[in-house]
Amino acid sequence: MGGILEGIRVVEVAAMAAAPSATVILADLGAEVIKVEPSSGDLWRYGHKVVPMPPSDVPYTTFIQNRTKKSVALNLNVPAAQEALHKLAATADVFLTNSPRQVQEKLKHTYEDIKAVNPKVIYAWVNGFGSQGPDKDAPGYDMTALYARTGLMEEMRPKGGDPAVLPASAGDLATATSLFSAVMTGLFHRERTGEGSKVSTSLMSNGLWINSSMLQSTLVGAPPIQKYRRTEWPNPVTAGTYKTRDDRFIIIVELNPANFENCLDALGADHLKGDERFSTPERRYQNHQVLFDEIQKIIGAHDLSAIAEILRKGHVNFSVTQTTEECTRDEHMIANGCFPEVEGTDGIRTVDSPIQIQAQGIDKVKPRKPPGIGEHTLSELMDLGYSEEDVRAMAEARAVGLPR
């Protein structure tokens, strides 16, 4: 079996998380991805050392962003390395970068630079704040451009509480899926027309898209959504979050009002059935505090495992608020292949990318160990026509990096 993108060659000039995560999705689906990075390596190779990330001797961040790729180390400040990059780009179907505009110009990998050596290339760019406007060249991370700037951070702030920090790379990974989609759209356009293109997305636009329900309400003149404490939630069986006896939480989400009675049946709340205060969605809203307190009383009398079993047997739409550690041993997630083992490691698992393909003779590529910095510099440059002596001379001149 082969990957559906087998034969697609990608050159990545990118660091950190959003852009490299998009190329991981491409690699998982069979594309050959060549990561171009400095001799010191992509900074996110050392993300596991950034406080307060969980301490580990295993550079775990690179398993998400750099697995299944090749690494070519180039010092793009040096003209000889820029020339090598252009030769690599000439062989690519996709050239993907998150370099700011000024860096692209300085290091000779703007769209115009790459298009000049490869007119049919799909040039993919992800940036912080978009390509227009006063902030187009401002630096942006997912925590700033996607989360804080777009209203999401304020929407997530609980009533009377402080803003919550975004989980590491969460916004980058969401943006990576958008960038992957943009690349595939560019490849589809080329398949139909034979023409290359420039495709792009931004962290800001993805944050706005994630927050689009609240933004759309504002755009039609609706007032801001009211903030509530957990125990004041006005729709107890639609996103009501309840605390169990052992201090865990579950969330119930029954959007269909017809399922209200079933929810009461599952909870054994016979005393609430037929109560006029809860007979319609409007009356449940008017009396939401009483209803929430009654449901909390029932759920609070059970440990998590017991109430989860009760709700499961009662076919209630709910979820346990799982910890990250619990996810890694979740039987259902494991059955869906969410944590495949990385080839070339001593049993390390990783997180599967979210795109699945079902077609005859097609399968996802098994994740391979992230490459060492510059692991493929020699072989890839020799494939471009450089001799081994040429490459070693370039290494002496610090234009390229070889494995340490």
From TrEMBL:
<dbReference type="InterPro" id="IPR044855">
    <property type="entry name" value="CoA-Trfase_III_dom3_sf"/>
</dbReference>
<dbReference type="GO" id="GO:0008410">
    <property type="term" value="F:CoA-transferase activity"/>
</dbReference>
<dbReference type="InterPro" id="IPR023606">
    <property type="entry name" value="CoA-Trfase_III_dom_1_sf"/>
</dbReference>
<dbReference type="InterPro" id="IPR003673">
    <property type="entry name" value="CoA-Trfase_fam_III"/>
</dbReference>
<dbReference type="Pfam" id="PF02515">
    <property type="entry name" value="CoA_transf_3"/>
</dbReference>
<dbReference type="InterPro" id="IPR050483">
    <property type="entry name" value="CoA-transferase_III_domain"/>
</dbReference>
<protein>
    <submittedName>
        <fullName>CoA transferase</fullName>
    </submittedName>
</protein>
<keyword id="KW-0808">Transferase</keyword>
